[in-house]
């Protein structure tokens, strides 16, 4: 029987808790700013969909790793994270205990998080936000009309 109360176990549990907390806070902020109109609802939907996709891909990759099957490419996992799915990826890493010890992967993952958050901050400054809103409105009009 293994000892699950040692320092490493406590550290892993606190890492998982922190990961879940960070992802939840980000998603709550996205929902709040979407609700108050600071960011378009389409962006909140994109982040939610990408996060759900990330969870599914991580689950599939974990299953494949356990069963010796074809794996999901790391570049695919990073692309989904970069596209807004990093909160879901962080949740999946914690829930499935997957992709948490491969240092190169973790560094690349956090770089995608920084790039994604930086782009969101840049896009939603007043001037850039107005430009994005105009593009989204044009797309809605093209689809509807």
Rg over alpha carbons: 18 Å
The number of strands is 0
What does the main sheet amount to?
Answer: none
Could you say how many structural domains there are in total?
1
How far apart, in Å, are the first and last alpha carbons?
A: 65 Å
Mean pLDDT: 86
Using the alpha-carbon principal axes, give the shape: globular
Low-confidence stretches: none
Kindly state the percentage of residues in helix: over 70%
Quaternary state of the chains: single chain
Question: DSSP strand (E) fraction?
Answer: under 5%
Order of helices and strands: HHHHH
Total helices: the number is 5
Structural class: mainly alpha
Can you describe what's shown?
- The chain has 145 residues and is an all-alpha fold.
- It has one domain.
- The protein has five helices and no strands.
- It is globular.
- It starts with 6 loop residues before the first helix and ends with a helix.
- The mean pLDDT is 86.
